[in-house]
């Protein structure tokens, strides 16, 4: 990264002592959305400059907080939160107007126009999906349902659905911002060592290449790979079923009740939030997990294999209990040839294996359905799926438990979001259901699922 020279505006000085412009060398150490770390060599020796810089930053409205680190000449600044009005203000106002429309006798055109204005982001997503992706998404179903409610004069139902969707999105963004803040602390650590921040908390260094891939790696998990085609494939049949139901029953209200069917509700927030939260929590305990797919495989491990017999000396009864794996499912190899033989044997048996090693072995990286765990020694840790920076087996039980808990939470959240949605759709299609009640149940269950 090249060093950039900054020329600030001249500071007004006394008439008898004009001051020339100051030249300040600075360098961006790293940045993430909302956070910026700048390295300024002058801070090493000029205390007065440091104080003036801090005062200037405090007067800058775009910066919410800043601090100067003593050991390193760098200034860290954070962007000020712009507030929740862009996401919550308009939907909340729309809901308030829709509720007050009847007692205040507001014209239908005004109330409907406000609801329609609040739904502009929804229509923008529909347009982008059709023009850029060339496919019909769940937003198309939501837009059709909203349009029917507005035509029927059910402004409260439409406004409530928009408001709950905005609340869910705001909570999701707040959680992601919290995770970004935690990740910033992890990224701030030096890659070569662990920094102890307290008596009980330590941070695992996170390789730079993996920092941007944690959230994207969620798409590669078996859960989402299996669920995403089902969710996307259900959209067009839902449209067809809704149209068929309208023809058979002659009731557009009951037919429109099918449109909010959303099997893939967890794809947008539930699973990504759960996974990134877990990866962050593990790193805070000194355990680096490469990505979401590795986390998923950890939750399914039923066999442990060690690359050296000397590992037997490290295994205690307490560790066996914490791992939750029977001793007969724990294997030891004596050399590289034994590793390959044991690997093939376990593969034929259909075992989901976690290999524990403290040295490199080319054959360990060859199989997709296994996990390679390194004790954080030597050069091989760069290729490992999991790194235990404590250099011992103590965190292994915690790692397995955390992975299993995350996978269970993802399935529970999926059930919380999907089952009420299916129930609302079924009741509305066969017997009819108040659109306000349907919007309240669907929106609330989606929010609850994300924060379960």
Automatic annotation (TrEMBL):
* Stretches with biased composition (Basic and acidic residues): 66-78
- What domain of life? Bacteria
Positions of the region Disordered?
A: 64-83
Name of this protein: Genome sequencing data, contig C288
Q: From what organism does this protein derive?
A: Microcystis aeruginosa PCC 9717
UniProt lineage: Bacteria, Bacillati, Cyanobacteriota, Cyanophyceae, Oscillatoriophycideae
């Amino acid at each position: 990264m090249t060093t950039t020279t900054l020329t600030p505006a001249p500071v007004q000085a006394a008439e008898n002592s004009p001051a020339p412009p100051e030249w300040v060398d600075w360098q961006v150490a790293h940045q993430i959305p909302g956070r910026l770390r700048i390295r300024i060599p002058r801070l090493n020796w000029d205390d007065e400059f440091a104080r003036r810089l801090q005062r200037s930053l405090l007067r800058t409205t775009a910066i919410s907080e800043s601090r100067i680190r003593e050991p390193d000449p760098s200034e860290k600044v954070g962007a000020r939160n712009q507030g929740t009005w862009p996401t919550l203000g308009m939907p909340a106002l729309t809901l308030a107007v829709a509720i007050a429309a009847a007692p205040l006798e507001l014209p239908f055109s005004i109330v409907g126009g406000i609801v329609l204005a609040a739904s502009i982001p929804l229509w923008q997503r529909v347009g982008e999906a059709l023009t850029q992706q060339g496919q019909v998404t769940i937003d198309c179903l939501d837009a059709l349902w909203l349009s029917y409610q507005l035509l029927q004069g059910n402004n409260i139902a439409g406004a409530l659905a928009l408001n709950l969707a905005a609340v869910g999105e705001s909570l999701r963004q707040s959680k992601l911002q919290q995770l970004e803040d935690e990740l910033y602390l992890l990224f701030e650590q030096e890659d070569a060592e662990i920094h102890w921040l307290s008596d009980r908390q330590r941070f695992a260094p996170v390789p730079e290449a993996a920092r941007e891939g944690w959230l994207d790696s969620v798409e590669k998990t078996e859960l989402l790979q299996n669920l995403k085609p089902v969710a996307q494939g259900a959209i067009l049949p839902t449209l067809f079923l809704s149209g068929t139901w309208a023809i058979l029953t002659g009731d557009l209200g009951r037919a429109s009740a099918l449109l909010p069917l959303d099997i893939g509700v967890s794809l947008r927030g539930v699973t990504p939030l759960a996974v990134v939260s877990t990866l962050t929590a593990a790193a805070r305990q000194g355990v680096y997990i490469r990505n979401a797919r590795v986390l998923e495989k950890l939750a399914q491990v039923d066999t442990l294999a060690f690359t050296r017999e000397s590992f037997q000396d490290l295994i205690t009864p307490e560790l066996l209990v914490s791992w939750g794996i029977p001793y007969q499912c724990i294997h030891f190899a004596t050399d590289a040839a034994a590793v390959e033989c044991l690997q093939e044997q376990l593969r034929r048996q259909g075992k989901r294996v976690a290999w524990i090693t403290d040295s490199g072995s080319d054959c360990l990286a060859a199989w997709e359905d296994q996990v390679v765990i390194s004790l954080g020694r030597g050069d091989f840790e760069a290729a490992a799926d999991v790194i235990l920076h404590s250099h011992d087996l103590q965190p292994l039980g915690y790692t397995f438990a955390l992975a299993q808990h995350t996978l269970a939470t993802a399935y529970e959240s999926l059930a919380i979001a999907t089952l009420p949605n299916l129930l609302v759709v079924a009741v509305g299609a066969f017997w009819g259901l108040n659109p306000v009640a349907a919007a309240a149940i669907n929106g609330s269950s989606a929010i609850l699922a994300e924060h379960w």
